Amino acid sequence: MNWNGMDFFHAGLTLGLFALGLGLAAKALSWLRLTIAPGPRPGMAARLAALARGLARNLAPRRAARWGRALILDGLLQRRIAGNGAYRWLMHIMIFSGFMGLLLMHGLDELTSERWLPGYAPALDPYQWLRNLFGVLALGGLAVAVWRRRVLPRVRRITGAQDWALILLLLGIMLSGLGLEASKIISPHVFDSMVEQYLGTDDEAEINALRLLWSEEYGVVFPAAPVYSAEVLARGREAHEGSCVYCHSRPTSAFVSYPLARAVAPLGNALNAWRADQLFYYLHVGLCFLGLALLPWGKFLHPLSTPLNLTLRQGRTGSDTGTKPPALAAVLRPLGLDACTHCGACSEHCSVAPSFLVLGTPDILPSEKLGSLKRHAAGQLRGPALRAFAEGSQICTECLRCTSVCPSGIDLQDLWMQSKARLRQTGPGEPHAVLGQRALRDWAATFRSLPPARAEATRSVKLCDNRASFWGCIQCTTCTSVCPVVAASEAPTRELDLTPQQIMNMLRMGLKEEVLGAEMVWSCVTCYKCQENCPQGVRVADVLYELRTLAWARLREHPEAWDEDGPRDSARDTAISRRNAETGRGPEAEHGAALEGDTP
Amino acid sequence: MNYAYFPGCKIPHHLPAYGQAVTALCAALGIGLEPLEFNCCGEPVRHRSFEAWALSAGRNLALAQRAGLAIMTPCKCCFGSLKHAAYWLRENPALRAQVGAALAEEDLSLPEEPQVLHLLTVLDRDVPSDELAARAGGRLYGLKVAAHYGCHALRPGNVTNFDDPLNPSIFERLLRRVGATPVPWALRLECCGHPLRGKRDKFSLALKARKLADARDAGAQILVTACTYCQMQFAEPDEGLAAVAQQTAESTRGAMPGRTRERSADNPQADTPPAMLAAQLIGLGIGLSPQELGLAELPAPLVHPVSLGHEE
Question: Does B88 touch chain A (CB under 8 A)?
């Protein structure tokens, strides 16, 4: 490569490594600083000490063997991905083996191949062939990745900008590499510079003879095609065997880039005139340096953070981070967050995914909630994003399924339990907590001031707004007298605002807004004794359930009525409404934050 | 007979012992359990959105229908939620159409007659009474137990069709078959208080305390539950409630039935009976080992050597 190219290479490498170093340092610092759990926050020194103690404890041979086992089975052989289906394992192992093969044999060849492989030269076989093989493996895997992210509904719905960025970067590196190889095959400039460096003669006749051979057998496209003659060809072969053969196998073994070079040969002169070889070089090397600089960020880090997390988890699929010393757990949690590849396995299996379909809040799905949790831990969540995170966190039922399927071995269960506990301290609270904050009178004023929620109008089962629901009520007070909450209350009128039978009476009179915030509604234990015992068949407990959903639907649409953290983000809402109109999602979905372009 | 096993969300992490006990008991009694990947029954989201609840529950009914199996759940809240969904999806054509349309995107369809059963019903219906009695022998003879029914299976009776909602007998019947002696107690059909746990703790704890005291006063040595939530309510310590439950994982894991409760003088729950899952008690009754049933240690009333003739 010419001097300018080298300059580009060294400048790019230096910048890339500098960015990598800074990024990794910031990342390591974040593992020592970010806090997910509530309560006292272990300092950096405590975390480092806990980490050191943990490492020391695990140096014993039997424990170290467990780490090694996890690194090999889960990190290298990727057993946990296999647990999510053969095609996913095949996809990832193709990308992994192709990329790592290229990185180790080709990208770092000055440090690896040239030292350890005697007689290594990039254009010799089997290296030339292997480079193509690795490239094809990676491209095949990437094609599957594109397919699943575009076609499978449960994966498509969580796929965001960052997922495409990583796929496109890898595709760019692989394709530009093939382009570089093909354009170097056809390039007379590369031929000339090699001749200058290695032939050791400037005998024009000999160089011409070599030109003929390289044009015939090595695919170089010269501006003026050398005239064929068997005699000249033999002379060229002689020169070739004297100078070139030690570093060059025939390019036919480059089973992708050589056919590519043959295919573009008719355009060869134009490509060579544009110096396609240099363009591809800058593109290929530039993209590699970009990858280097991006490595510490987001899912680009997963080649480092995921094997680390898998090794630390030692093959466990349950949740145990909460049982570790707090300072150690405090390091393991942010590290786990960074091991996420946003593959979507958790969201494919999520127990509360149907709630996402109806409510539309992406943070209900674990793969999306994890991104918000990162921002929450960094103190960057505000307003609508914070409420969406709280809603997703609160709807999670802690069923452990995301944790047991996670190919990166993240202890998600622990992360959710800790972040939920933290949200209970800092808010926004659950509906029950929010409604407990004000007196009934204030809530009545609030609810009167709010228009009915969109969810309220579209619902198919309506009890409260249907006066027929209460026609049978004779105000006999049976519901109130069997209610265990009323019985457990020392002063029901003060503590519960209204008794069940009073609520039925007010609803019969159409005073819905006056009862939505009643403590009785939010202290209902859902035992259904009232409904079972009602002599007139009034659905007392079902009505109380409905009151809670109605109240929350209104407050959810109008957070400014209860959340000091600010009103809804109207610009964001408009964007979401537009997207929903495009995707045909219902009005309920409009509450959610945007799915695409909002991934961690 | 084979059932689609619906453990619910809380068993895998919060009460794994229940899962172990149900699996072991059903295996011992020849009840086949097919694990399907269900989603949440919907109950926890029912306070927020009727529609989210209906789709969650309805999807489970559709999954069971596709597998051609009846659902069997050991959790009464899951049971009640699924039965309510079956009820509303039958009664309200608009809701049925709405849920059906969402399910159709996954090629799922709502069953005409969803089959949802609770563990107790399956034990009562599928295991011949004399077989259970014969296998139990006298292991639990003389053990006084309070059967805690659990609201969401019992009421509203016209929705759940579990047993007579005002005077049920299925739980006591099963306990008698394995040799235990159910005691009559006033609050047996009352709520455990779990639905308000973490929401209105004052009432949640008051309901729990009242029930435990009533069971104790009725002479029960053990309070028997058949619901994940009820068991968690009675067995989990209350300390972490008002403050943040910092390490719920740890506390639940330590909350095996029989872990001795603090019995200080100022504790109103002093000497109240420990809570135990029916699947565990019946399992012990027919000779399964405590380990198989997920019991780290036996509750105090069962430790006495003559009351439980285990072959060690």
Answer: yes
Mean pLDDT of chain A: 91
Residue with tokens 């729950």: B269
Asked if B228 contacts B77 with a C-beta cutoff of 8 angstroms, the reply is yes
pLDDT (tens digit per residue) in A177-225 = 999 999 999 999 999 999 999 988 889 999 999 999 999 999 999 999 9
- Looking at beta carbons, which residues of chain B come within 8 Å of A529? 151, 155, 189-191
- Beta strand ranges found along chain B (DSSP E): 2-5, 32-35, 70-73, 116-118, 144-147, 181-182, 222-225, 275-277
CB atoms within 10 A of CB A159: 22
Phi and psi for A186 in degrees, rounded to 5?
-85, -5
Task: Give CA–CA dist A450/B255, Å, rounded.
Answer: 45
Give SS3 for A289: helix
Query: Quick one: what percent of chain A has pLDDT higher than 70?
Result: 93
**Rounded-to-integer distance, Cα B235 and Cα B254, Å:** 9
CB of A544 closer than 8 Å to CB of A503: yes
Residues A162 and A599: beta-carbon distance below 8 Å: yes
Which among B191, B229, B232 is the top mutation candidate for probing chain A, defined by the most A β-carbons within 10 Å of its own β-carbon?
Answer: B191
Cβ <8 Å between B55 and A350: no
Choose the closest CB to A527 out of B44, B191, B198: B191
Q: Which residue of A has its CA nearest to B209?
A: A488
Neighbours of B254 (CB within 10 A): 13
Cβ neighbors of A489 (< 8 A, separation 6 or more) are A495, A496, B203
pLDDT of A560-593, one tens digit each?
A: 999 876 554 444 444 444 444 444 444 343 333 3
**Nearest Cα residue in chain B from A527:** B151
d(CA A77, CA A100): 13
Q: Helix/strand/coil (H, E, C) string of A231-275?
A: HHHHHHHHHHHHHCCCCCCCHHHCCCHHHHHHHHHHHHHHHHHCC
Q: Taking residues B149-155, what's their average pLDDT? A: 97
Are residues A504 and A473 in contact, defined by beta-carbon separation less than 8 angstroms?
yes
- Residue B306, SS3 per DSSP: coil
Q: How far is A168 from chain B (nearest CA, A)?
A: 30
Asked if pLDDT for residue B40 goes beyond 60, the answer is yes
Q: How close, in Å, is residue A150 to chain B by CA atoms?
A: 17
* Contact (CB<8Å) B14/A398: yes
CB count within 10 Å of CB A525 equals: 26
pLDDT at residue B247, rounded to an integer: 34
A401 at B interface, C-beta within 8 A: yes
> Which residue has 């040969």 as its token pair?
A265
